[in-house]
């Protein structure tokens, strides 16, 4: 039996990874800022982090924040993992972190480099956006009478449970370096996703596509965050919506 530490183990992805690994018979420790007995702020490190890693073979690093500090957190985690003699570090990243000049993406890419240069056996998986993140964005946009979306832009949402399964599989294997990306089953325009969300939640809103400017928009418009050649996910956006909100409209929207 392997002892595995999952950082961010109470989050949307980390919780599912933890469940998968435990169901496979592994001893799993959950590290997060508020989860005892391993309540640790990775940005601070310290003796609590060393205690969490004592005797750990594999680390699955899911903890992240868009408020900054991911690089410092990763550096502290890697240093502690080396001290503990961990042999495998698995990191979940995002498709396009090397192509989209968004601050959060740049931070994730920097962490990838830290992992690769850590001196520990490593595996990095990049995935497209989770369904629930797309819903969070659309919910915020739908608060206005008109849903304003970036024109000529698409997304490829993936089911988080499928990403968790893949991460658990990778954690139980040998270090594999950068593995193939994991994308959702369909590349969809934002307008198509918005209409599906509005139908599932019973909202009536006009959807307007507006051209934007800037390098980040151009990178998204060019599909830098997509992985159509790795559309290995199976759960569709409509299936996610039906499971979360109930089925209000039939059919699948494409485009």
From TrEMBL:
Domain NAD(P)-binding positions: 8-132
Organism whose genome encodes this protein: Streptomyces lividans 1326
Annotated protein name in UniProt: NAD(P)-binding domain-containing protein
GO terms of molecular function: protein-containing complex binding
Pfam families: NAD_binding_10 (PF13460)
Species lineage: Bacteria, Bacillati, Actinomycetota, Actinomycetes, Kitasatosporales
